[in-house]
Amino acid sequence: MDLEKLREVFKEHAKKEIGLGDPWLDEDFNEFKNMIEALDVKEGDILYVGAGTGFGVYVLSELLKDRGKIYAYEIDPNNIEVTKKNLDSLKDVMNYDNIILKECDGFIHNKKVDNIVITAGAPYEQNEQNSELYEYLESHLNVGGKTVIPFGHLGKIYHDVVCIGKAYGLENVDGKITSKVISDHSGMWYPLRGRYGFSDEKIQRVQKEPPLVELI
To answer: Would the pLDDT of 21 be above 60?
Structure first.
């Protein structure tokens, strides 16, 4: 299914956006597209961490069809309302009822899944063997399953704190997580919060710093 066409449908019906790091906006769409293509969704359950605007959840719903469930989580109470409103506005054009949406840290999910999508940027130090995130993936991702996730560092763009980094594809190979860069291009992502993300204290500290880019 054409991701561009799905984006046009979303843009036509969606009511809300978040800002920098929205994967359906022009400047972030290509990175999101690379991640989804690397995932190569065919069947099985998907854990989605960082539902945001609901765009990625909608895309995966249409790609997965009736071949599995999407367990979508969003930790930010404002963002979860955006997700709910956008998915509600899309209900007449969505073809499948396969989304389970919850407001909390997605890493409380305790069932094994076939794929994991994380569209919020995680701290770069989590992208290594023996990290807490890798340990979670080894125990919750089925063998042969894939994860797509951006890793990077916090920065301030205009008034927004974002994670600036690259998207990676991780795979459970015989119980061990392997990692490779999906794209050499650095993108901007909403910072991952919660168990394996950036602390609220660190985000607030960066918020007080001068921006890397200012409006002229």
So the answer is: no
